[in-house]
Amino acid sequence: MSDETMTIFSPHLAARLDALAARYPVRRSALVPMLLYAQDEIGYVSQAVIAEVAERIGITELEVRNVASYYSMLHFKPVGRYKVQVCTSISCALRGADELYERFQKELGIGAEDVTTDGIFSLEKVECIGECAWAPAIQVNYDFHEELSPAHVPGILASYRGKSGVGEKTPHA
Amino acid sequence: MPRLVSHPDEVKIVSRRFGKGAANIDRYLELGGYESAWKCLQQGPEWIISEMKASNLRGRGGAGFPTGLKWSFVPKQSAKPKYVLVNGDESEPGTCKDHLIFQHDPHAVIEGTIIAGLAIGAKLGFIYLRGEYRGLLEIMEKAVAEAYARGFLGKNIFKSNTEFQIIAHTGAGAYEVGEESALMESLEGKRGIPRIKPPFPAVVGLYGGPTVINNAETIATVPHIIAMGGAAFAAAGSPGNGGTRLFSISGHVERPGVYELPMGYNLKKMIYEVAGGVRGGRSLKAVVPGGSSTPVLLPEEIDIGMDFDQVGKVGSMLGSAAVIVIDDRTCMVEFALRTISFYQHESCGWCIPCREGTDWLKKTLTRFHAGFGEARDIDNILYLAENMMGRTFCPLGDAAAMPMVAFVKKFRGEFEEHLSGKGCPFAGHAELAAV
Q1: Which residues contact B385 (CB under 8 A, 6 or more apart)?
Q2: I need a surface site. Which of A19, B247, B325, B397 has the fewest CB within 10 A?
Q3: ipTM for the complex?
Q4: How many CB pairs under 8 A join A and B?
Q5: How many structural domains is chain A composed of?
Q6: A60 at the B interface (CB within 8 A)?
Protein backbone atom coordinates (compact mmCIF):
# COMPACT_ATOMS: atom_id res chain seq x y z
CA MET A 1 0.00 0.00 0.00
CA SER A 2 1.20 3.48 -0.70
CA ASP A 3 2.13 5.75 2.17
CA GLU A 4 -0.91 7.96 1.69
CA THR A 5 -3.35 5.07 2.04
CA MET A 6 -5.26 4.96 5.27
CA THR A 7 -4.93 1.81 7.32
CA ILE A 8 -6.90 0.61 10.31
CA PHE A 9 -3.89 -1.35 11.56
CA SER A 10 -0.98 -0.37 13.78
CA PRO A 11 2.19 0.68 11.91
CA HIS A 12 3.83 -2.57 13.03
CA LEU A 13 1.05 -4.75 11.63
CA ALA A 14 0.70 -2.65 8.48
CA ALA A 15 4.40 -3.17 7.77
CA ARG A 16 4.06 -6.87 8.43
CA LEU A 17 1.12 -7.14 6.03
CA ASP A 18 3.05 -5.23 3.36
CA ALA A 19 5.87 -7.74 3.67
CA LEU A 20 3.44 -10.67 3.59
CA ALA A 21 1.81 -9.48 0.38
CA ALA A 22 5.18 -9.18 -1.31
CA ARG A 23 6.71 -12.51 -0.36
CA TYR A 24 4.60 -15.02 -2.32
CA PRO A 25 4.77 -15.80 -6.05
CA VAL A 26 1.07 -14.88 -6.11
CA ARG A 27 -0.16 -12.08 -3.87
CA ARG A 28 -3.37 -13.85 -2.95
CA SER A 29 -1.42 -16.48 -0.98
CA ALA A 30 -1.08 -13.87 1.75
CA LEU A 31 -4.85 -13.71 2.24
CA VAL A 32 -5.39 -16.25 5.03
CA PRO A 33 -2.35 -15.25 7.12
CA MET A 34 -3.32 -11.58 6.68
CA LEU A 35 -6.82 -12.20 8.00
CA LEU A 36 -5.49 -14.11 10.99
CA TYR A 37 -2.87 -11.50 11.91
CA ALA A 38 -5.47 -8.76 11.46
CA GLN A 39 -7.86 -10.62 13.73
CA ASP A 40 -5.13 -10.96 16.35
CA GLU A 41 -4.86 -7.17 16.51
CA ILE A 42 -8.45 -6.03 15.92
CA GLY A 43 -10.10 -8.87 17.82
CA TYR A 44 -12.20 -10.24 15.00
CA VAL A 45 -12.65 -10.11 11.24
CA SER A 46 -14.65 -6.90 11.12
CA GLN A 47 -16.10 -5.25 8.03
CA ALA A 48 -13.18 -2.81 8.13
CA VAL A 49 -10.69 -5.70 8.22
CA ILE A 50 -12.38 -7.33 5.23
CA ALA A 51 -12.35 -4.07 3.29
CA GLU A 52 -8.70 -3.34 3.93
CA VAL A 53 -7.51 -6.89 3.30
CA ALA A 54 -9.49 -7.01 0.04
CA GLU A 55 -7.75 -3.86 -1.07
CA ARG A 56 -4.33 -5.08 -0.02
CA ILE A 57 -4.74 -8.35 -1.92
CA GLY A 58 -6.56 -6.80 -4.85
CA ILE A 59 -9.70 -8.95 -4.74
CA THR A 60 -13.31 -8.18 -3.91
CA GLU A 61 -14.70 -8.10 -0.39
CA LEU A 62 -17.02 -10.92 -1.39
CA GLU A 63 -14.06 -13.11 -2.25
CA VAL A 64 -12.45 -12.32 1.09
CA ARG A 65 -15.66 -13.26 2.93
CA ASN A 66 -15.98 -16.43 0.92
CA VAL A 67 -12.49 -17.57 1.92
CA ALA A 68 -12.64 -16.31 5.51
CA SER A 69 -15.87 -18.21 6.23
CA TYR A 70 -14.09 -21.50 5.52
CA TYR A 71 -11.53 -21.23 8.32
CA SER A 72 -12.67 -22.09 11.83
CA MET A 73 -10.22 -19.80 13.62
CA LEU A 74 -11.55 -16.69 11.90
CA HIS A 75 -14.61 -15.16 13.51
CA PHE A 76 -16.87 -12.32 12.53
CA LYS A 77 -17.92 -10.96 15.90
CA PRO A 78 -15.95 -9.86 18.94
CA VAL A 79 -14.90 -12.49 21.46
CA GLY A 80 -13.18 -12.28 24.83
CA ARG A 81 -9.67 -10.92 25.08
CA TYR A 82 -8.68 -14.43 26.13
CA LYS A 83 -10.33 -17.17 24.14
CA VAL A 84 -10.47 -20.33 26.25
CA GLN A 85 -10.63 -23.26 23.86
CA VAL A 86 -11.18 -26.62 25.49
CA CYS A 87 -10.38 -29.59 23.27
CA THR A 88 -13.14 -32.18 23.57
CA SER A 89 -11.97 -34.41 20.75
CA ILE A 90 -11.37 -38.11 21.42
CA SER A 91 -7.96 -38.23 23.13
CA CYS A 92 -8.78 -35.34 25.43
CA ALA A 93 -12.29 -36.74 26.05
CA LEU A 94 -10.76 -40.03 27.22
CA ARG A 95 -8.85 -38.16 29.89
CA GLY A 96 -11.46 -35.84 31.33
CA ALA A 97 -12.09 -32.99 28.87
CA ASP A 98 -15.80 -32.83 29.72
CA GLU A 99 -15.19 -32.29 33.44
CA LEU A 100 -12.58 -29.69 32.55
CA TYR A 101 -15.01 -27.85 30.29
CA GLU A 102 -17.74 -27.95 32.94
CA ARG A 103 -15.38 -26.43 35.48
CA PHE A 104 -14.53 -23.57 33.09
CA GLN A 105 -18.25 -23.03 32.55
CA LYS A 106 -18.83 -22.89 36.29
CA GLU A 107 -15.91 -20.58 37.04
CA LEU A 108 -16.70 -18.20 34.20
CA GLY A 109 -20.46 -18.42 34.52
CA ILE A 110 -20.89 -18.61 30.76
CA GLY A 111 -21.78 -21.25 28.20
CA ALA A 112 -20.33 -22.27 24.88
CA GLU A 113 -19.39 -19.42 22.54
CA ASP A 114 -20.27 -16.86 25.26
CA VAL A 115 -18.19 -13.91 26.45
CA THR A 116 -17.91 -12.82 30.09
CA THR A 117 -19.57 -9.48 30.89
CA ASP A 118 -16.18 -7.85 31.48
CA GLY A 119 -15.11 -8.99 28.01
CA ILE A 120 -12.01 -10.76 29.32
CA PHE A 121 -12.89 -14.38 28.55
CA SER A 122 -14.81 -16.34 26.01
CA LEU A 123 -15.29 -20.08 26.15
CA GLU A 124 -15.62 -22.68 23.45
CA LYS A 125 -15.24 -26.38 22.79
CA VAL A 126 -12.84 -27.07 19.97
CA GLU A 127 -11.79 -30.09 17.95
CA CYS A 128 -8.33 -31.66 18.18
CA ILE A 129 -5.54 -29.13 18.84
CA GLY A 130 -2.59 -31.52 18.44
CA GLU A 131 -1.93 -32.08 22.14
CA CYS A 132 -3.30 -35.64 22.32
CA ALA A 133 -0.46 -37.23 24.27
CA TRP A 134 -0.67 -34.48 26.90
CA ALA A 135 -4.43 -34.61 27.34
CA PRO A 136 -6.61 -33.06 28.44
CA ALA A 137 -5.37 -29.82 26.97
CA ILE A 138 -6.68 -26.37 26.21
CA GLN A 139 -5.54 -23.39 24.25
CA VAL A 140 -5.97 -19.84 25.54
CA ASN A 141 -5.46 -17.67 22.48
CA TYR A 142 -2.28 -19.31 21.18
CA ASP A 143 -0.95 -20.67 24.52
CA PHE A 144 -1.26 -24.37 25.20
CA HIS A 145 -1.92 -25.76 28.67
CA GLU A 146 -1.44 -29.48 29.06
CA GLU A 147 -2.26 -32.37 31.37
CA LEU A 148 -4.98 -30.47 33.19
CA SER A 149 -7.54 -31.40 35.79
CA PRO A 150 -10.51 -29.28 36.87
CA ALA A 151 -8.48 -28.14 39.89
CA HIS A 152 -6.14 -26.21 37.56
CA VAL A 153 -8.95 -24.06 36.20
CA PRO A 154 -9.07 -21.25 38.81
CA GLY A 155 -5.29 -20.76 38.63
CA ILE A 156 -5.26 -20.56 34.84
CA LEU A 157 -8.08 -18.02 34.81
CA ALA A 158 -6.42 -15.94 37.53
CA SER A 159 -3.16 -15.78 35.58
CA TYR A 160 -4.92 -14.36 32.52
CA ARG A 161 -7.03 -12.02 34.61
CA GLY A 162 -3.76 -10.73 36.03
CA LYS A 163 -2.36 -10.12 32.54
CA SER A 164 -5.51 -8.30 31.51
CA GLY A 165 -4.90 -5.68 34.18
CA VAL A 166 -8.33 -6.26 35.70
CA GLY A 167 -8.59 -7.40 39.33
CA GLU A 168 -9.89 -10.71 40.58
CA LYS A 169 -13.31 -9.12 40.93
CA THR A 170 -14.29 -6.54 38.39
CA PRO A 171 -16.58 -3.79 39.75
CA HIS A 172 -19.59 -4.93 37.79
CA ALA A 173 -18.98 -8.65 38.12
CA MET B 1 5.28 -27.22 27.14
CA PRO B 2 4.57 -30.83 26.07
CA ARG B 3 6.45 -33.31 28.18
CA LEU B 4 9.08 -35.47 26.48
CA VAL B 5 9.11 -39.15 27.34
CA SER B 6 11.66 -41.87 26.90
CA HIS B 7 11.83 -45.65 26.81
CA PRO B 8 14.81 -48.02 26.36
CA ASP B 9 13.23 -49.61 23.27
CA GLU B 10 13.22 -46.31 21.44
CA VAL B 11 15.52 -45.84 18.46
CA LYS B 12 16.03 -42.11 18.28
CA ILE B 13 16.70 -40.97 14.75
CA VAL B 14 14.16 -38.22 14.05
CA SER B 15 13.83 -37.33 17.73
CA ARG B 16 17.54 -37.50 18.53
CA ARG B 17 17.79 -33.72 18.93
CA PHE B 18 14.59 -33.30 20.96
CA GLY B 19 15.25 -31.57 24.26
CA LYS B 20 18.78 -30.55 23.18
CA GLY B 21 18.21 -26.94 22.27
CA ALA B 22 18.49 -27.58 18.53
CA ALA B 23 15.97 -24.88 17.68
CA ASN B 24 19.05 -22.67 17.98
CA ILE B 25 21.13 -22.88 14.81
CA ASP B 26 24.50 -23.06 16.57
CA ARG B 27 23.35 -26.01 18.59
CA TYR B 28 21.86 -27.60 15.47
CA LEU B 29 25.21 -27.24 13.70
CA GLU B 30 27.06 -28.76 16.68
CA LEU B 31 24.73 -31.75 16.37
CA GLY B 32 25.60 -32.33 12.72
CA GLY B 33 23.04 -30.00 11.21
CA TYR B 34 23.12 -28.90 7.55
CA GLU B 35 25.82 -31.47 6.72
CA SER B 36 23.26 -33.56 4.83
CA ALA B 37 22.14 -30.64 2.69
CA TRP B 38 25.78 -29.88 1.87
CA LYS B 39 26.37 -33.50 0.93
CA CYS B 40 23.28 -33.46 -1.32
CA LEU B 41 24.51 -30.32 -3.08
CA GLN B 42 27.69 -32.15 -3.98
CA GLN B 43 26.05 -35.45 -4.94
CA GLY B 44 23.16 -34.15 -7.05
CA PRO B 45 19.50 -35.04 -7.57
CA GLU B 46 19.84 -38.56 -8.91
CA TRP B 47 21.94 -39.64 -5.97
CA ILE B 48 19.46 -38.07 -3.52
CA ILE B 49 16.52 -39.89 -5.07
CA SER B 50 18.37 -43.20 -5.14
CA GLU B 51 19.20 -42.86 -1.42
CA MET B 52 15.60 -41.97 -0.69
CA LYS B 53 14.35 -44.98 -2.63
CA ALA B 54 16.85 -47.24 -0.84
CA SER B 55 15.62 -45.94 2.54
CA ASN B 56 12.11 -47.34 2.08
CA LEU B 57 10.80 -44.18 3.71
CA ARG B 58 7.03 -44.05 3.33
CA GLY B 59 4.95 -40.91 3.81
CA ARG B 60 4.29 -40.14 7.46
CA GLY B 61 1.06 -38.25 6.83
CA GLY B 62 -0.86 -41.48 6.68
CA ALA B 63 -1.02 -42.83 3.16
CA GLY B 64 2.44 -44.40 3.33
CA PHE B 65 3.44 -43.66 -0.24
CA PRO B 66 7.19 -44.19 -0.87
CA THR B 67 8.83 -40.78 -0.65
CA GLY B 68 11.68 -41.46 -3.10
CA LEU B 69 9.22 -42.64 -5.71
CA LYS B 70 7.04 -39.56 -5.18
CA TRP B 71 10.04 -37.30 -5.76
CA SER B 72 10.99 -39.22 -8.91
CA PHE B 73 7.60 -38.45 -10.50
CA VAL B 74 8.41 -34.75 -10.77
CA PRO B 75 9.37 -33.97 -14.37
CA LYS B 76 12.97 -32.84 -14.82
CA GLN B 77 12.00 -30.14 -17.30
CA SER B 78 9.13 -27.83 -16.51
CA ALA B 79 7.99 -24.57 -18.03
CA LYS B 80 6.54 -23.55 -14.67
CA PRO B 81 8.52 -23.27 -11.42
CA LYS B 82 8.55 -26.34 -9.18
CA TYR B 83 7.79 -26.23 -5.48
CA VAL B 84 8.21 -28.17 -2.26
CA LEU B 85 5.28 -27.99 0.13
CA VAL B 86 5.62 -29.30 3.67
CA ASN B 87 2.37 -30.35 5.27
CA GLY B 88 2.34 -29.31 8.92
CA ASP B 89 -1.43 -29.05 9.18
CA GLU B 90 -1.30 -31.83 11.77
CA SER B 91 -4.95 -32.29 12.79
CA GLU B 92 -5.92 -35.96 12.77
CA PRO B 93 -7.21 -36.64 16.30
CA GLY B 94 -4.59 -38.54 18.26
CA THR B 95 -1.66 -37.11 16.31
CA CYS B 96 0.81 -34.72 17.95
CA LYS B 97 4.26 -35.66 16.61
CA ASP B 98 4.85 -32.72 14.24
CA HIS B 99 4.17 -30.50 17.23
CA LEU B 100 7.39 -31.79 18.82
CA ILE B 101 9.38 -31.61 15.57
CA PHE B 102 8.53 -27.92 15.06
CA GLN B 103 9.26 -27.19 18.69
CA HIS B 104 12.53 -29.05 19.12
CA ASP B 105 14.05 -29.45 15.67
CA PRO B 106 12.80 -26.78 13.24
CA HIS B 107 16.08 -26.77 11.32
CA ALA B 108 15.59 -30.45 10.44
CA VAL B 109 12.39 -29.42 8.65
CA ILE B 110 14.26 -26.65 6.84
CA GLU B 111 17.15 -28.94 5.91
CA GLY B 112 14.78 -31.66 4.67
CA THR B 113 12.94 -29.08 2.58
CA ILE B 114 16.21 -27.91 1.02
CA ILE B 115 17.10 -31.51 0.16
CA ALA B 116 13.67 -32.15 -1.39
CA GLY B 117 14.13 -28.95 -3.39
CA LEU B 118 17.54 -30.07 -4.64
CA ALA B 119 16.13 -33.48 -5.58
CA ILE B 120 13.34 -32.10 -7.76
CA GLY B 121 14.94 -28.86 -8.91
CA ALA B 122 12.74 -26.43 -6.98
CA LYS B 123 13.86 -23.00 -5.82
CA LEU B 124 11.08 -22.34 -3.34
CA GLY B 125 9.62 -24.34 -0.51
CA PHE B 126 6.67 -23.70 1.79
CA ILE B 127 6.24 -24.97 5.31
CA TYR B 128 2.53 -24.86 6.14
CA LEU B 129 1.61 -25.03 9.83
CA ARG B 130 -1.92 -25.25 11.16
CA GLY B 131 -3.12 -21.92 12.53
CA GLU B 132 -3.35 -23.20 16.09
CA TYR B 133 0.44 -23.77 16.05
CA ARG B 134 1.28 -20.04 16.23
CA GLY B 135 3.93 -20.51 18.88
CA LEU B 136 5.52 -23.22 16.73
CA LEU B 137 5.28 -21.05 13.62
CA GLU B 138 7.26 -18.38 15.46
CA ILE B 139 9.94 -20.98 16.25
CA MET B 140 9.97 -22.02 12.57
CA GLU B 141 10.16 -18.40 11.37
CA LYS B 142 13.08 -17.69 13.67
CA ALA B 143 14.86 -20.80 12.38
CA VAL B 144 14.21 -19.80 8.76
CA ALA B 145 15.66 -16.33 9.46
CA GLU B 146 18.75 -17.93 11.03
CA ALA B 147 19.19 -20.21 8.03
CA TYR B 148 19.04 -17.20 5.70
CA ALA B 149 21.55 -15.31 7.85
CA ARG B 150 24.01 -18.23 7.67
CA GLY B 151 23.64 -18.69 3.92
CA PHE B 152 21.82 -22.03 4.05
CA LEU B 153 18.85 -20.37 2.38
CA GLY B 154 18.80 -17.63 -0.23
CA LYS B 155 19.98 -16.98 -3.77
CA ASN B 156 23.32 -18.69 -3.31
CA ILE B 157 23.01 -21.41 -0.69
CA PHE B 158 26.25 -22.82 0.72
CA LYS B 159 27.98 -20.51 -1.80
CA SER B 160 27.13 -23.05 -4.48
CA ASN B 161 25.35 -20.79 -6.97
CA THR B 162 22.14 -22.61 -6.14
CA GLU B 163 18.98 -20.82 -5.06
CA PHE B 164 16.57 -22.10 -2.46
CA GLN B 165 14.10 -20.06 -0.44
CA ILE B 166 11.59 -21.05 2.23
CA ILE B 167 8.39 -19.40 3.40
CA ALA B 168 6.75 -20.53 6.65
CA HIS B 169 3.00 -20.11 6.28
CA THR B 170 0.11 -20.21 8.75
CA GLY B 171 -3.30 -21.77 8.18
CA ALA B 172 -6.36 -20.61 10.10
CA GLY B 173 -8.13 -23.74 11.28
CA ALA B 174 -9.13 -26.54 8.91
CA TYR B 175 -8.47 -30.29 9.13
CA GLU B 176 -9.49 -30.70 5.51
CA VAL B 177 -6.47 -28.66 4.45
CA GLY B 178 -4.27 -31.57 5.54
CA GLU B 179 -5.38 -33.25 2.31
CA GLU B 180 -2.71 -32.36 -0.23
CA SER B 181 -4.84 -30.77 -2.94
CA ALA B 182 -6.86 -28.80 -0.38
CA LEU B 183 -3.53 -27.74 1.15
CA MET B 184 -2.48 -26.22 -2.17
CA GLU B 185 -5.81 -24.42 -2.52
CA SER B 186 -5.38 -23.01 0.97
CA LEU B 187 -1.85 -21.85 0.26
CA GLU B 188 -3.14 -20.13 -2.85
CA GLY B 189 -5.47 -18.10 -0.64
CA LYS B 190 -8.67 -19.97 -1.33
CA ARG B 191 -11.13 -22.16 0.54
CA GLY B 192 -9.55 -25.55 1.22
CA ILE B 193 -11.64 -27.51 -1.26
CA PRO B 194 -9.94 -30.60 -2.70
CA ARG B 195 -9.01 -30.81 -6.37
CA ILE B 196 -9.88 -33.80 -8.47
CA LYS B 197 -6.95 -36.05 -9.42
CA PRO B 198 -5.38 -36.57 -11.90
CA PRO B 199 -3.47 -34.42 -12.57
CA PHE B 200 -1.37 -35.22 -9.53
CA PRO B 201 0.56 -32.47 -7.74
CA ALA B 202 3.89 -33.82 -9.02
CA VAL B 203 2.76 -32.71 -12.48
CA VAL B 204 0.29 -29.86 -11.83
CA GLY B 205 0.48 -28.56 -8.28
CA LEU B 206 0.88 -25.26 -6.54
CA TYR B 207 0.31 -22.30 -8.91
CA GLY B 208 0.12 -24.93 -11.64
CA GLY B 209 3.76 -25.99 -11.22
CA PRO B 210 5.06 -29.47 -10.36
CA THR B 211 4.95 -29.81 -6.57
CA VAL B 212 6.19 -32.32 -4.04
CA ILE B 213 4.04 -32.41 -0.93
CA ASN B 214 5.37 -34.22 2.13
CA ASN B 215 4.33 -34.48 5.73
CA ALA B 216 6.52 -32.57 8.21
CA GLU B 217 7.76 -35.79 9.83
CA THR B 218 8.69 -37.22 6.42
CA ILE B 219 10.68 -34.10 5.63
CA ALA B 220 12.36 -34.00 9.06
CA THR B 221 13.46 -37.61 8.49
CA VAL B 222 15.23 -36.83 5.21
CA PRO B 223 18.45 -35.28 6.60
CA HIS B 224 18.92 -38.31 8.84
CA ILE B 225 18.54 -40.67 5.88
CA ILE B 226 21.20 -38.76 3.99
CA ALA B 227 23.48 -38.79 7.05
CA MET B 228 23.16 -42.49 7.83
CA GLY B 229 22.59 -43.76 4.27
CA GLY B 230 19.38 -45.02 2.76
CA ALA B 231 20.21 -48.69 3.29
CA ALA B 232 21.02 -48.21 6.98
CA PHE B 233 17.75 -46.35 7.51
CA ALA B 234 15.81 -49.12 5.74
CA ALA B 235 17.49 -51.70 7.96
CA ALA B 236 16.21 -49.94 11.09
CA GLY B 237 12.63 -50.80 10.13
CA SER B 238 10.70 -53.77 8.80
CA PRO B 239 10.54 -55.14 5.23
CA GLY B 240 9.32 -52.42 2.87
CA ASN B 241 8.83 -50.03 5.81
CA GLY B 242 12.06 -48.17 6.36
CA GLY B 243 13.30 -46.70 9.61
CA THR B 244 11.47 -45.51 12.67
CA ARG B 245 8.25 -43.71 13.31
CA LEU B 246 7.07 -41.20 15.87
CA PHE B 247 4.14 -42.93 17.60
CA SER B 248 1.75 -40.57 19.38
CA ILE B 249 0.29 -42.70 22.18
CA SER B 250 -2.75 -41.22 23.91
CA GLY B 251 -5.83 -42.22 25.86
CA HIS B 252 -6.00 -44.63 28.77
CA VAL B 253 -2.35 -45.54 29.22
CA GLU B 254 -0.08 -44.91 32.19
CA ARG B 255 2.57 -43.05 30.20
CA PRO B 256 1.14 -41.30 27.15
CA GLY B 257 3.63 -39.55 24.92
CA VAL B 258 5.41 -39.49 21.59
CA TYR B 259 7.82 -42.43 21.28
CA GLU B 260 10.15 -43.13 18.37
CA LEU B 261 10.13 -46.85 17.66
CA PRO B 262 11.23 -49.00 14.73
CA MET B 263 8.63 -49.66 12.06
CA GLY B 264 7.10 -53.04 12.75
CA TYR B 265 7.31 -52.69 16.55
CA ASN B 266 4.69 -54.84 18.25
CA LEU B 267 1.52 -52.93 19.17
CA LYS B 268 0.78 -54.94 22.29
CA LYS B 269 4.30 -54.32 23.58
CA MET B 270 3.95 -50.65 22.69
CA ILE B 271 0.88 -50.34 24.90
CA TYR B 272 1.88 -52.58 27.80
CA GLU B 273 5.61 -51.94 28.03
CA VAL B 274 6.47 -48.66 26.34
CA ALA B 275 3.37 -46.76 27.47
CA GLY B 276 3.13 -48.58 30.79
CA GLY B 277 -0.12 -50.46 30.19
CA VAL B 278 -3.74 -49.48 30.69
CA ARG B 279 -4.14 -46.76 33.28
CA GLY B 280 -5.14 -47.69 36.79
CA GLY B 281 -4.80 -51.42 36.08
CA ARG B 282 -8.03 -51.40 34.06
CA SER B 283 -8.51 -53.82 31.21
CA LEU B 284 -8.23 -52.98 27.55
CA LYS B 285 -11.35 -52.62 25.44
CA ALA B 286 -10.10 -51.30 22.11
CA VAL B 287 -7.22 -49.61 20.29
CA VAL B 288 -7.38 -47.11 17.45
CA PRO B 289 -4.02 -47.79 15.80
CA GLY B 290 -3.30 -44.88 13.47
CA GLY B 291 -5.38 -41.80 14.18
CA SER B 292 -9.14 -41.40 14.49
CA SER B 293 -9.86 -42.37 10.88
CA THR B 294 -8.38 -45.86 11.19
CA PRO B 295 -10.66 -48.79 12.04
CA VAL B 296 -10.61 -49.81 15.71
CA LEU B 297 -8.90 -53.03 16.83
CA LEU B 298 -10.03 -55.42 19.55
CA PRO B 299 -7.59 -56.59 22.29
CA GLU B 300 -7.18 -59.93 20.51
CA GLU B 301 -6.11 -58.13 17.33
CA ILE B 302 -3.19 -56.12 18.69
CA ASP B 303 -0.41 -58.68 18.63
CA ILE B 304 0.85 -57.20 15.36
CA GLY B 305 3.82 -55.28 14.04
CA MET B 306 3.14 -51.60 13.53
CA ASP B 307 3.97 -50.97 9.90
CA PHE B 308 1.84 -50.11 6.90
CA ASP B 309 1.56 -53.69 5.67
CA GLN B 310 0.99 -55.57 8.92
CA VAL B 311 -1.71 -53.21 10.20
CA GLY B 312 -3.34 -53.43 6.78
CA LYS B 313 -3.53 -57.20 7.10
CA VAL B 314 -5.82 -56.94 10.13
CA GLY B 315 -8.15 -54.58 8.29
CA SER B 316 -6.97 -51.28 9.67
CA MET B 317 -4.24 -48.77 8.82
CA LEU B 318 -1.06 -47.40 10.33
CA GLY B 319 -2.18 -43.92 9.23
CA SER B 320 -0.48 -41.18 11.21
CA ALA B 321 0.75 -43.69 13.83
CA ALA B 322 -1.46 -42.18 16.52
CA VAL B 323 -2.30 -45.02 18.91
CA ILE B 324 -5.40 -44.28 20.98
CA VAL B 325 -5.94 -46.70 23.85
CA ILE B 326 -9.44 -47.25 25.25
CA ASP B 327 -10.24 -48.96 28.55
CA ASP B 328 -13.21 -51.11 29.57
CA ARG B 329 -15.21 -48.27 31.12
CA THR B 330 -15.52 -46.40 27.86
CA CYS B 331 -18.80 -46.32 25.94
CA MET B 332 -17.97 -47.16 22.34
CA VAL B 333 -21.18 -45.55 21.06
CA GLU B 334 -20.08 -42.30 22.63
CA PHE B 335 -16.57 -42.80 21.26
CA ALA B 336 -18.08 -43.29 17.79
CA LEU B 337 -20.15 -40.15 18.30
CA ARG B 338 -17.07 -38.09 19.28
CA THR B 339 -15.25 -39.42 16.26
CA ILE B 340 -17.99 -38.59 13.78
CA SER B 341 -18.53 -35.19 15.42
CA PHE B 342 -14.99 -34.30 14.44
CA TYR B 343 -15.46 -35.26 10.79
CA GLN B 344 -18.88 -33.61 10.64
CA HIS B 345 -17.29 -30.41 11.92
CA GLU B 346 -14.37 -30.64 9.49
CA SER B 347 -16.13 -31.78 6.31
CA CYS B 348 -15.69 -28.97 3.81
CA GLY B 349 -19.13 -29.67 2.35
CA TRP B 350 -17.95 -29.95 -1.22
CA CYS B 351 -18.91 -33.60 -1.80
CA ILE B 352 -22.47 -34.49 -0.89
CA PRO B 353 -21.81 -38.04 0.41
CA CYS B 354 -19.35 -36.63 2.96
CA ARG B 355 -21.33 -33.52 3.90
CA GLU B 356 -24.63 -35.36 4.31
CA GLY B 357 -23.15 -38.64 5.49
CA THR B 358 -21.18 -37.15 8.38
CA ASP B 359 -24.16 -35.00 9.36
CA TRP B 360 -26.66 -37.86 9.40
CA LEU B 361 -24.23 -40.16 11.18
CA LYS B 362 -23.75 -37.54 13.88
CA LYS B 363 -27.49 -36.96 14.22
CA THR B 364 -28.21 -40.69 14.38
CA LEU B 365 -25.46 -41.41 16.90
CA THR B 366 -26.45 -38.45 19.07
CA ARG B 367 -30.03 -39.68 19.26
CA PHE B 368 -28.92 -43.26 19.67
CA HIS B 369 -26.52 -42.51 22.50
CA ALA B 370 -29.18 -40.48 24.30
CA GLY B 371 -31.41 -43.56 24.46
CA PHE B 372 -33.76 -42.80 21.57
CA GLY B 373 -32.27 -45.32 19.20
CA GLU B 374 -34.16 -47.93 17.23
CA ALA B 375 -32.83 -51.33 16.20
CA ARG B 376 -32.82 -50.37 12.53
CA ASP B 377 -30.50 -47.43 13.28
CA ILE B 378 -27.61 -49.83 13.73
CA ASP B 379 -27.78 -51.12 10.18
CA ASN B 380 -28.56 -47.66 8.94
CA ILE B 381 -25.27 -46.39 10.39
CA LEU B 382 -23.50 -49.11 8.43
CA TYR B 383 -25.49 -48.31 5.30
CA LEU B 384 -24.70 -44.60 5.51
CA ALA B 385 -21.00 -45.18 6.17
CA GLU B 386 -20.57 -47.78 3.46
CA ASN B 387 -22.22 -45.51 0.92
CA MET B 388 -19.84 -42.65 1.66
CA MET B 389 -16.74 -44.67 0.91
CA GLY B 390 -15.03 -44.09 -2.40
CA ARG B 391 -17.58 -41.47 -3.42
CA THR B 392 -15.76 -38.26 -2.54
CA PHE B 393 -12.98 -36.16 -4.10
CA CYS B 394 -10.71 -36.53 -1.12
CA PRO B 395 -10.14 -39.13 1.60
CA LEU B 396 -12.08 -37.24 4.31
CA GLY B 397 -15.27 -39.10 3.43
CA ASP B 398 -13.52 -42.44 3.79
CA ALA B 399 -11.75 -41.25 6.94
CA ALA B 400 -15.11 -40.55 8.56
CA ALA B 401 -16.86 -43.67 7.30
CA MET B 402 -14.24 -46.38 7.86
CA PRO B 403 -14.10 -46.14 11.66
CA MET B 404 -17.92 -46.11 11.87
CA VAL B 405 -18.16 -49.43 10.06
CA ALA B 406 -15.62 -50.97 12.44
CA PHE B 407 -17.32 -49.58 15.57
CA VAL B 408 -20.65 -51.12 14.57
CA LYS B 409 -19.23 -54.43 13.40
CA LYS B 410 -16.97 -54.95 16.40
CA PHE B 411 -19.20 -53.49 19.14
CA ARG B 412 -22.67 -54.31 17.85
CA GLY B 413 -23.60 -55.75 21.25
CA GLU B 414 -22.78 -52.47 22.91
CA PHE B 415 -24.94 -50.61 20.43
CA GLU B 416 -27.80 -53.02 21.18
CA GLU B 417 -27.43 -52.39 24.93
CA HIS B 418 -28.36 -48.77 24.26
CA LEU B 419 -31.75 -49.89 22.92
CA SER B 420 -33.29 -50.72 26.28
CA GLY B 421 -34.80 -47.24 26.42
CA LYS B 422 -32.60 -46.33 29.37
CA GLY B 423 -29.87 -44.72 27.30
CA CYS B 424 -26.18 -45.25 27.74
CA PRO B 425 -25.36 -48.23 30.00
CA PHE B 426 -22.06 -46.55 30.88
CA ALA B 427 -23.58 -43.25 31.99
CA GLY B 428 -23.07 -42.22 35.56
CA HIS B 429 -20.44 -44.75 36.48
CA ALA B 430 -18.09 -44.71 33.56
CA GLU B 431 -18.34 -42.51 30.49
CA LEU B 432 -15.54 -41.55 28.27
CA ALA B 433 -14.07 -39.17 30.71
CA ALA B 434 -13.87 -41.21 33.89
CA VAL B 435 -10.70 -40.45 35.82
Answers
A1: B357, B361, B400, B401, B402, B404, B405, B408
A2: A19
A3: 0.95
A4: 162
A5: 2
A6: no
